[in-house]
Amino acid sequence: MTRESFVNLALLTALVAVPLWAWVAGEPFTITLATRAVIFALAAVGLNLALGLGGMVSFGHAVFFGLGGYSMGILAHHAQNFLPLYDGLIVIEGTKSMPVIWLVAIVVSALAALLIGLLSLRTSGVYFIMITLAFGQMFYYFAISWRAYGGEDGLSIWVRNDFPGLNTLAPIQFYGLCFALLLAALWLSARIARSSFGLVLNAARQVPGRVETVGLDGQRAKLVAFVISGAITGLAGALFADLNRFVSPTMFSWHMSGELIVFIILGGAARLFGPVAGAVLFVAMEHVLGDLWDHWHILLGALLLVIVLFARGGLIGLLAGKARNHD
Amino acid sequence: MSLLRLENVTARYGAAQALFGVDLDLAEGEVVALMGRNGMGKSTTVKTICKMLPAEGRLIFDGHDLSRLPSHQAARLGIGLVPEGRRCFRDLTVAENLIVAARPGPWDMDRVGALFPRLAERRGQRAATLSGGEQQMLAIGRALMTNPRLLILDEATEGLAPLIRAEIWAVVARLKAETGLSILVIDKSLKELRQVADRAVILARGRVVWSGEMAALDHETSLRHVGV
């Protein structure tokens, strides 16, 4: 077992043990914190596919997080108010079913990622960052002006959505669902990284514009990765909305996009468990330091500086050493 | 039969024109040396063939008009490039560098490994950790893994130690003798080019100033246009 596998396993063990302890000890707030961390981790695992593996620094992934959130919000809003979503030739009802909501969140986010990716991937570097940021702001301001679904005030969902066979209002059960989805996303990421598609993506990131000379379509690989990345982040958005039972335009804001990047930098870019470590560290700092000092973001900024200057592999790199070991 | 034909090809970098109506013909199984001093349009010609730079004029490869094809599709027709500066995928292993480029055909990992035993020994090593010569071998091996019909070597021996250069030239000679692969080679080593190339095309200021059998290239012409 490599050092990195050991660190990853330790992190997973903590993500199982701490919520279980909190459940036994009757500390539901700790479970909620862990759920928040796991959902952020899921969103960042999605972004890491684009950023870490594909080298696409997207400053607009909040679009997919928000679309996932609003997919949940809109479907649940119509279901709880017994208002059809569409009443024309056919009638489309809202739903409180999590699997259906997740599927819609994934499809909507993937379609948005396809459109945004098609346009954004014509650019690179700082222009790519700016165009993805611009898309984020477009969605943000659209959500603010969308009065049918709460506008600036957002949309409250009174009761958490349903999952067959589970009581999703029990924090530990909802946590279990989120954790299982994080594991699935990590498994998918690992598979992609090791696949021939992952190799193409990796090569396209390393020598932009040259991968084509060996007959590979680097742009298409990047677009596919961007779409998968957006879909995973969208799923995380749907879970986040369900956790809070509330969606608002802030899910689309550039702060959210920035935070997703911060999770990856904190944990380690292009490391499978980097986004998980980053999200857990962020939520822990937010809770512990935030209790002590209102301006805890200053400390977060200082930590980011230290990591960027002295530990570019992030937390995982610090604990597990260099990214890849070959004989 | 002509495998690659360039007719009246012009190319520019923004406002600066780099090629002025270049004609080039390369037959199946032929080795052609593309020569000239620095900045005369050799690498630009390669970029136009590989569709890395937009060009005007006719570019025909194996009967296919390259003008409307994107770079990766031109490569899939059978144009294998060993780029200047090697450009290996540094964070991938030797094996991954080869696998990622693999296309169906006689060249596979084993055959490349037989051609470059050093690469076979370092299959699991990251490309970034290889020496310059080994990276060059990897760049050639990667291009061969695409199973090309035309191999383009752009300054493949530049900056390498004499022993490694000799090794690379021996490989080029072997490819010519054993596989009959068409090769377009850009290099400044006239002595070695004379040994492997059938014909030479010399560029000066973006124009073909001499073209003919390698044996017919006299010292005065090469000194004037190539500098050696």
Which key phrases capture this entry?
heterodimer, A: 327 residues, mainly alpha, ABC transporter involved in vitamin B12 uptake, BtuC, two-stranded antiparallel sheet, 4 strands, globular, B: 228 residues, alpha/beta, Rossmann fold, 6-stranded mixed β-sheet, 4-stranded antiparallel β-sheet, 10 strands, Amino acid/amide ABC transporter membrane protein 2 (HAAT family) (chain A), cell membrane (chain A), branched-chain amino acid transmembrane transporter activity (chain A)
Record the SSE blueprint.
The complex is a heterodimer of chains A (327) and B (228).
Chain A: H1 3-25, H2 28-53, H3 62-80, E1 86-87, E2 91-92, H4 98-120, H5 125-145, E3 155-156, H6 171-194, H7 196-206, H8 218-244, E4 246-247, H9 254-267, H10 274-292, H11 297-310, H12 314-320
Antiparallel strand pairs in A: 1-2, 3-4
Helix pairs in contact in A: 1-2, 1-6, 1-12, 2-6, 2-8, 2-9, 2-10, 3-4, 3-8, 4-8, 6-7, 7-8, 9-10, 9-12
Chain B: E1 2-13, E2 16-27, E3 31-35, H1 42-49, E4 55-61, E5 64-65, H2 71-78, E6 79-82, H3 94-101, H4 109-115, H5 117-121, H6 132-145, E7 150-154, H7 162-179, E8 182-186, H8 190-196, E9 199-204, E10 207-213, H9 219-225
Parallel strand pairs in B: 3-8, 3-9, 6-7, 7-8
Antiparallel strand pairs in B: 1-2, 1-4, 4-5, 9-10
Helix pairs in contact in B: 3-6
GO molecular function, one term (chain A): branched-chain amino acid transmembrane transporter activity
Membrane topology (chain A): Multi-pass membrane protein
Protein name (chain A): Amino acid/amide ABC transporter membrane protein 2 (HAAT family)
